[in-house]
Amino acid sequence: MTRPLKPIPEFRSEDEEREFWATRGRDSTQYMDWSTASLARFPNIKPATSTISLRLPLSLLVRIKLEANRMDVPYQALIKVWLAEKAFGPGRMGDVVGRLRHGSGVRKEPAVKGADEKAGAKGPDDE
Fold first, then answer.
1. 84 part of a folded domain
2. Which domain holds residue 111?
3. Digit-coded pLDDT (tens) for 65-96
4. What b/e sequence results for 70-89 when a residue is b if at least 16 CB atoms lie within 10 Å of its CB, and e otherwise?
């Protein structure tokens, strides 16, 4: 015999709903029958992003742009991939690398105009 399910309350905000479900001792099986659940896919949901300002030495930025140009990808996308690899480990970055590898945002023009002339600044690996 199945017990009756409690009604899920109406929430005024996502924060209120998040707090409700995160409450210690709250069990979602009191509110829904998971045996009837099915897998849902949301392919068009994009992860939330935040704009940041980052100061880099010019020599480092030039080297990043040269590498991005060599790979024919936007330099900002390459920076995101490198940061994700460092934060999550190789092969665990999910959507970030997938978008980069499958051509999302691949540009038609070079990342750096005249980068070869500016590349005279030595980076940490140049000695």
1. yes
2. 58-118
3. 999 999 999 999 999 999 988 888 876 665 55
4. eeebbbebbbbbeebeeeee
